[in-house]
Amino acid sequence: ISSFADGHMLESVRNDPWKVLLASRMLNVTTGRAAFWKIVNRWPTPRELIDAPLDELVELLRPLGFYNKRAKWFKEISQRYIDDPPRYANSRPEAELTIASQRPCTRQTRSRARVSSSYPHTPISHFPGVGPYALDSFRIFCRSSLEPEADTTNEVWKQVMPSDKELVRYLKWKWAYEEHKIW
User: Fold this and answer.
1) 3-state class of 117 per DSSP?
2) Pairwise CA distance, residues 123 & 135, whole Å
């Protein structure tokens, strides 16, 4: 059963919030797994991606569509990541987003209608183009990577109720595997 987590792209980069941002930007629109790995293998840090030749980055993103826009965003988010990195001391609220209620996740609450309220503060809320998918991904996969002494168990993932079917599928697995419960 642990092979499900091993194969999940976000699980494999959970200790690098920058890569989680890039991956979530690619996965929330299309399956960009191959392009993602080519990009982060070629330019493994935000600084290297900023310095990457735009034409090379565009070429790797071309199969996904919106390649010029994506390339620009990748460079912009990498610069912002360097200039104002995610950190808990600087968490900011996101604008109004449609999110699930903040009650603990259970089979019953997951199926209830989603409500509009302020999204929970996260260390990545201030980045441009970061929406519910990226925020949910961050809270599920890498929240404790920035402040492990304060949250060694990363219990935050238990509060996330994503609307994305792949994140829901992952959480169903995680609840079963780690908590021995059906979500």
Assistant:
1) strand
2) 9
